[in-house]
Design brief:
This protein is an all-beta fold and 60 residues long. The protein has one domain. The protein is built from no helices and 3 strands. A hairpin with a 7-residue loop joins strand 2 and strand 3.
Amino acid sequence: MSTVPVVVTEPGRNCTRCGQPLTITVLEFYADPYPTPVATREGFVDCPSGCTGAIDPHAR
């Protein structure tokens, strides 16, 4: 069985500084022949306004 890493960018929580929706880059691992990820790791978070800071844990 081989494991294939796939990078996925998805909308995430809101920025605590400006309130804009954050973009989260996630690394997902798929194993043949399973169509769903066998493991997921959250990568880095980007704010479209350029803020550096925390994620609002309550907004999902």
